Amino acid sequence: MTGCHYRRLPTEADVLTFESTDFTRSNWAPDLQHGSPPLALLTKTIEELIADSPLRIGRLSLDILGAIPVAPVSVRAWIERPGKRISLLAAEMRDGSERPVARVSAWALASSDTADVARDRYPPLTEGPAEPLPPHWWNVEGYLKSVDWRRQPDDPAGAAVWWLRPRVHVVDAEDTTPLQNLAMVVDSANGVGAALDPQRFVFMNTDTVVHLHRAPRGADFGLRARGSIGPDGIGVTTSEIFDRDGFIGTSAQTLLVQRR
């Protein structure tokens, strides 16, 4: 990996501060962050809270509370509901005016050995030769340059299939966990499964909710995504998530749909 989404700044008490790099920049607007870097950063702070516990994160839920600027941000993480078997954790990002702009909640559950009854809903997703990227959307600067995009043939049922791999760290040159690697790309399911032409429509997601029945491994993730657009300007994108070893979970996103 070369580069990062955020650089650490001096910390005050339990509040962490970070400089946002150009790799956080959204494809929707040059002064706004893409949803994936905030999700990855807030996931990192939550993972650090439970680093020495037997709990494993089974659900991540990102809510985008407002426009996230490409500027210094502050982050605080806390345990909202402690427990030995089930714990609810949260982390919040604020901009320079102390306005909350993003929040992640995570359910962490006690892990145990259920290998003898483990079941996957779908068979593993095999990556084939990458197809050319579309002429728009994916060939721009900012966040999209921080990810390796490998487009695959569409699924026979009509879903779009892409393999993605982060090219940069979340923070400085700090180690990046598999869950953070996934968080760096999973918000992109909205673009992967786009049901509309981004040159004619804006379809920004307000959230990203990820359920993981298995802990992710590595840094390569396959998304099989599909968008649905309602008649009144609201849509949903759902995705099945795979790593190199198979199916690991699902994601869902609520969309605001508007004509350009």
From TrEMBL:
Domain Acyl-CoA thioesterase-like N-terminal HotDog: 25-107
Domain Acyl-CoA thioesterase-like C-terminal: 128-257
Superkingdom of the source species: Bacteria
Protein name: Thioesterase
Species per Swiss-Prot/TrEMBL record: Mycobacterium kyorinense
